[in-house]
Amino acid sequence: MEMSGQEKIGVVFIHGAGLRGSVWKEVVDGWEHPVLLVDLPMRDGDDVTRKGLTADDYVSCIQQQIEAWGVTTFILVAHSLAGALALQVAQAYAGRMVGMVAIGAAIPQRGGSFLSTLPLIKRMIFSLVLRKLGTRPPESVIRAGICNDLTAEQTAEVVRGFVPESIRVYTDGIDAPLPQVPRYYVRLGQDKEFSLALQDKMIRHFAPDQVVHLNSGHLPMLSNPAELRDVLMGLLLANPRSGNQQKITKIC
Predict the structure, then answer these.
(1) Which of 69, 71, 151, 217 has the most Cβ atoms closer than 10 angstroms to its Cβ?
(2) Which residues have C-beta within 8 Å of that of residue 87, sequence separation ≥ 6?
(3) CATH for 4-238?
(4) Confidence of residue 12 (pLDDT cuts 50, 70, 90)
């Protein structure tokens, strides 16, 4: 995609809790767009140091990667927990961001946290778990929740590589308005982590211009990367800022 003056529009991908930017690799394979696969902070750091990070620290980490990337105009794609963080990132780049895609994502109301998006009973249970056990779920919970439609090999890799996040990235409020750009929500029909009722609540918060339904579990970038790629490409081409479609160099 190109804008007037030959300015390239890029796509920033922000992964969900416990994962790494590399989770998107199959989705962006073969793309002719500049892409940035963001890593949330301290993927290889020690758990004790990461535990003290705030939501603002996470947002700053994302912003540092965007600045180093050097692409002026971009669309944000955010998955799961990253939906809340992306709202604050979008506020910082109001003049540069031209669209946002939320994939099975948490979208709190202004001032709310990720935790605030959960139903009351689940919120109480999750708060208790955070205090008692921290942010690394038991292996059985990871397998049943975010890996329900993955292969055995993919599941083992997710479990092995799972990075516990800070508690405050779940509990800190996000004081950012909805971005005034085209907004899209990808609703995941087989998601065992974010129920359809919860996703519908997030959709109401997000007020997207379009909702796309994908028959996938919580990690469609692993279980069905080709279909997710097609969905994203369709949304990107529909973006009013995309202009004439022309070939550009892939950046990955």
Answers:
(1) 217
(2) 107, 108, 174, 176, 177, 178, 179
(3) 3.40.50.1820
(4) very high
Asked whether the beta carbons of 179 and 79 are under 8 A apart, the reply is no
Domain ranges of the chain: 4-238
Q: Look at the block and give the residue holding tokens 């907004």.
A: 183
Put simply, whether the predicted model's pTM sits higher than 0.85 gets the answer yes
Q: What is the C-alpha to C-alpha distance for residues 9 and 72, in angstroms, rounded to an integer? A: 7
Burial class (CB in 10 A: 0-12, 13-18, 19+), 44: exposed
**Coil/strand/helix, residue 12:** strand
Q: pLDDT tens, 212-234?
A: 999 999 999 999 999 999 999 98
Residue 171 identity? T
* C-alpha span between 109 and 91 (Å, rounded): 14
How far from 129 is each of 119, 201, 230, CA to CA, in Å?
15, 23, 37
